[in-house]
Structure formats: structure tokens, C-alpha cells
Amino acid sequence: MRIKRFTASSVREAIKDVKAEFGENALILSTKRLGAGMHEVVAAIDYDLTNPISLDLDDRRSRQTAPVQERNTGTLAPQVDDLRKEIKELKELKKLCMAMVSSSGSPVSDIFNRLEENLAAGGVDRRLARKILMNTLSGVTKEKAADIVYLKSCIRKKVYERIAVADPLAGKGVVAFVGAAGVGKTTTIAKLTAVNALRKKRRTALITMDTYRIAAAEQLKVYGKLMGVPVEVARDLNELRGCIKNHDDKELILIDTAGRSQRDSSGMNELKAMSAAAPEVKFNLVLNSQTRDEALYEAIKGFGALPIDSLTFTRLDEGTVHGPILNAMVLAKKPVAYLSTGARVPEDIEAASRERLMQFIMPN
């Protein structure tokens, strides 16, 4: 979005200048009298819809990549400097646009604020909500900028486009479920085993590495016995490799891991070692959908040290606010695999779809 101030002897004359430079699709952000017979109009026009504002809650990556590029492209130093200058100007323009849109005198400020509050009330991080709104406003004409129904439909479309889903059990493979204690890993595995082994008749085996929690292995063995699925206990990485080899005739091998805190360096190192020892294993991060803000972000960043393949959200039935799911997807940059909506095995689990996620994140 390009933003520019126009001054003239009257608002009408300033708007003529706006149309002359920006065309009929210009968005008027604000008008004010400067005194001494002069008026100012701040207008904006979208100049590149192919590069929308990144929906990213973690800006550290972009800050860290520039020095590396400069070291590797010494002959491109002038171009790097120009790029940094352009990025700085874009940031300043974005700040100005935010200030204009949210100011009390802006024609679209009330709608912008209402939409932001609506997203925030649904649990969407305000930083993310503002980026979504900026993307939305950058692509609409001034006539549509005051149409809240139209803007809501645009917001839904932009959110929908950024939802990614994947099913790590779609083909043959080995999947380990990781996450903090109490998020529902074992129950999730039991549900998925029932769906795949009983309903779909797929050859399935279970392995548990949770030798810390009392009766954790026994719990999984009970599930396995009820479903006619073999269950093995792996106490170390050598045993894990052996268990996987013992069941190389299976279509699916699901691994239950001990609950780990992302702050537990020893536990996280064990999971990293597991990834190195068994590179064929995919990792699914199980998250409690009712976890909020910083605790959720901390878990995602901590487990991000692993090669996470996909996400599963549990306990969706325990609350009505599900915006944190969107926050987690954006921060993790990983697709969602499964949604757990209750304690029943196997009824209360479903493969994620974009439509279903939209129902949770932005209900009508």
C-alpha cells in the first residue's frame, strides 16, 4: 500500500490531486485543515497485491537473515543497502497507515476498530488481527472500505487461504506424538488407532516411550488389547529402533512419548536424539486448544527444535474461543492434522479440514 499526503487550498482540490496520481481506487484515510486556507488529505492506494503483509507472529527470522545474505553476497552490498532502505520505508508507511486507520478522524477507523475487537474477542492475537485487517484494507476500494459485511467476507477469505492441513497417517509411516504432559497424546493415539485399525482395517502397531508416568504403558496396552493391536515398550533409542524394525510389515506405527516441558532441556534433548536415531519418524505436536497466548507460543517455539511435521489440537469441546488455533498455525508454520473434540474413543476425533477449522476459528 502506498500512502501520501496531498495539500491544496481546499479538500476538493486535494482530492483532485489524489485522483490524478492514484486514480479512482484511492482510499481517503483522513482529511484536516492546516490553517491559512490550506487543507491536507492523506490517501492510499494498493501498489502490489502479490506481496501482502506477512501473517507472522515471529519477526526474528527476517531480522536474522539480512546479515547472512550480506556476508554471502559481498558484491551485492549496494543492492542490500537499497533493499534495507526500501524495507525501512515500507515499515514507516505501514505505521503511518495504522495510525491513519485507527485515528478517530479516519473514515474507516470505527470499522477497523470494530473488526479488530471482533477478532480479538475470538482469541486472535491482536498483532495478527491488525495484519489481517491491513491485508484486507489494502485490497479494497474506497467504496467498499466502509462496508463491514464485505470486509468480514474478505477477512474470512484471507484467513481461509492461510489455513494448511495434512494427514501424516494418510500413507504408510511412523508417527510420534509429542507435547506437554496432560495435553491428551495417549488418548489421541487411542482414537487414531481405533479409526485406522478397526474402521479402515489398516495394519497398526503401537510403541510407548512413556516410562515416566505411572501406568502409562499399561493404559496403552489396555487400548491395544481392546483393538487387537500389538503394543511394545521402548525404554531407550536402541529398543525403539528394534520395535520399529519388528513391525516393518505394518502400515502404521504410532509412538506415544512422555509429556515434556519445552523448558526441560534434558527431555527435549532426548526427543532430538530420537529424531536423529530414527529419521523416518514424523513428529506431530499435540497442543491443548485452550492454552492461551504466551504459554502456547512458548510451547511451539520450544518444540520447534524438533522436525515437527504437523499439529493436533485437543479439548476443543472445553471452550468456545478458538482463535489461538490460528495464532498457533501462523507461528508454527505447520499444517493441522487432527482435531479432538471430546473424550470418547474413537468418536471424538476428526481429520482437520480448512472448512472445519474456519468453523472453530471464525464461527458465523
Properties at a glance:
8-stranded mixed sheet; Rossmann fold; 2 domains; alpha/beta; 11 strands
Short description, anyone?
The protein contains 13 helices and eleven strands. The chain is of the alpha/beta class and 364 residues long. The chain has two domains: 160 residues, no CATH class; 189 residues, Rossmann fold (3-Layer(aba) Sandwich), CATH 3.40.50.
Listing every helix as H and every strand as E from the N terminus to the C terminus, the arrangement reads: EHEEHHHHHEHEHEHEHEHEHEEH
Number of domains: 2
Task: Label the overall shape.
Answer: elongated
Low-confidence stretches: 47-53, 59-75
> On the 0-100 scale, what is the average pLDDT?
82
Number of strands: 11
Question: Which strand order does the major sheet show?
Answer: 6-5-7-4-8-9-10-11
Find the structural class using helix and strand composition: alpha/beta
Write the layout of secondary structure elements.
Layout: E1 2-8, H1 11-22, E2 27-35, E3 38-45, H2 60-72, H3 77-102, H4 109-121, H5 126-138, H6 148-161, E4 173-178, H7 185-199, E5 204-208, H8 216-227, E6 231-233, H9 237-246, E7 252-256, H10 265-277, E8 281-288, H11 293-303, E9 308-314, H12 323-332, E10 336-340, E11 349-351, H13 354-361
Parallel strand pairs: 4-7, 4-8, 5-6, 5-7, 8-9, 9-10
Antiparallel strand pairs: 1-3, 2-3, 10-11
Helix pairs in contact: 4-5, 5-6, 7-8, 11-12
Structural notes for this entry:
The chain has 13 helices and eleven strands. With 364 residues, it is α/β, with parallel strands linked by helices. It has two domains: 2-161, no CATH class; 173-361, P-loop containing nucleotide triphosphate hydrolases (Rossmann fold, 3-Layer(aba) Sandwich), CATH 3.40.50.300. The strands form two sheets. An eight-stranded mixed β-sheet has the order 6-5-7-4-8-9-10-11, with helices on both faces. Strands 1-3-2 form a three-stranded antiparallel β-sheet, with helices on both faces. The longest helix is centred in the first third of the chain and has 26 residues, at 77-102. It is elongated.
